[in-house]
Each structure stands twice: as C-alpha cells, then as structure tokens.
Design a protein that fits this description.
This protein is α/β, with parallel strands linked by helices and about 130 residues long. It contains seven helices and six strands; from the N terminus they run βαααβααβαβαββ.
C-alpha cells in the first residue's frame, strides 16, 4: 500500500527551480511507493502564479503539469482560511506525510507529529519524522 503524501505548492515547483525529480525523491526518502495528493487551494495558488509572465509563472506552469499526477482532495475549508492551516488540519486528520519547503509550516507540522518531506541542499528529498500508517 503506498504512503499518502500531501504536496504543497512550493514543493511542486522544486523540479523547475532545482531540476530534482520530486516523485522519485519522495519514493527514495520514504523507501516505498507513494500516492501524491494535492488540495484544491494549492491548485488555485499555482494557477494564479502561472498567470504571471515572470519566471515564477513558468515554474508554476510546470508545477501544474506535475500536479496532474496527484489526486485532488475534496476538503472544504472556510473561505479565507490560510493554506498552511488547511494543510496542517488535513495532514493531521488523514495521517499524511506533507511535502513542503516552507520552514514555518515544517516547524508546525513537526510539532504536531507529522512527517515532513523537504528538499535538502537543493539536491535531494529528505524526511523528518516517521510516517504514520
């Protein structure tokens, strides 16, 4: 059974920024097959970024193509609720690993006992914590 991993928008942009295969990296870090999940709010954020003409827009366009490999979770959140709060809530409720490079979110997830995958040394995916199964 694959480990379920919730991907944050900044993690989906890693391949465009650092040329790292995040899917292979996650499987290596977790030492098992994975099932990638994404929130609708994350897709919306990437779509807003992709509309830009600058480099971030091109990175977000690639991230959106990669997001096609993920299952979109149907999570209803209160309008205006911060994305990090939603990620923390869903990861706790569903017992998911979270893939993010956001240091503040990583800290909150670690404090909640959630395993976190992140890009280390701009070269490979590392894991903090133990995935709940």
């Amino acid at each position: 059974m694959p480990v379920k991993v919730l991907l944050d928008s900044n993690f989906l942009m890693v391949p465009a920024q650092f040329h790292v295969d995040i899917f292979q990296g996650l499987e290596s870090a977790l030492n098992t097959r994975i099932e990638c999940l994404i929130l609708p709010q994350t897709l919306e954020e990437l779509e807003r970024l992709a509309a830009r003409r600058a480099e971030k827009g091109r990175e977000a366009q690639l991230a959106l193509r990669l997001a096609d490999r993920c299952t979109v979770l149907s999570h209803r959140a209160k309008p205006g609720k911060p994305a990090d709060d939603i990620i923390l809530e869903v990861a706790t409720d569903e017992r998911l690993v979270v893939a993010t490079n956001d240091s503040a979110l990583r800290k909150r997830l670690r404090e909640a006992g959630i395993a976190v995958a992140y890009l280390r040394k701009k070269a490979y995916v590392a894991l903090e914590g133990v995935p709940m199964v």
